[in-house]
Amino acid sequence: MSKEKLMRIAERVLKRTESYQNIRELDVSDEDNYKVDYLLIKGSKAAPEDVIAYASYVDEMMFFHPLEKDSTPFEHYEELFNFETDLFEYLENGYSLAAMSLDCHYCVWFDIAEYHSEYQSQNGFQKYLDYCKRNGVTRELLAKESGYDGMDVMTFYDKQAVKAAQEKLSNDFER
To answer: Which of 42, 47, 54, 163 has the fewest CB atoms within 10 Å of its CB?
Structure first.
């Protein structure tokens, strides 16, 4: 299953949520309603074991499992949300980032600039930076597309740490 197909599925599930429908009733266009910020996948893209989608609207946040038929989204999640537990821990525990909006990268980069030394999930943090490296997410791109004016967090990228984390994860799966 391609990341585009997974994104379409996540967007379709998102549009069925109560929060999305409530905002739509306020005559807010779909373009200004909740948007999927990022998708995490466990397993292969062809046959994922699990997919988690995070979506936001203004300062409201929700997450849901778009491939689970009877999954109830966790809405009004904004007070509990942080990139350490909702992104880096998942990456550290075998999930991969399938897609992320530039607006979300913008927020992650500001979070990294302020809190990078406090992250416990350093392997997940490095996997995120590796995703940025492989997908051309740079300070220049974020500045051009989103007005990002913070530090270049790619200075924290450690290719050897990513390789070591991937080896550790594959060794853990073999046990």
So the answer is: 47
Q: Output the pTM of the full model.
A: 0.89
| CA distance linking residue 132 with residue 157, whole number of Å | 10
**For residue 10, which phi and psi values (nearest 5 degrees)?**
-60, -40
**Rounded CA separation 80/76 (Å):** 9
SS3 category, 79? coil
Expressed in percent and rounded to 5, the helix, strand and coil fractions of the chain are: 55, 20, 30
Contact 103, 38 (CB under 8 A): no
DSSP 115-139: HGGG-S-HHHHHHHHHHHHHHT--H
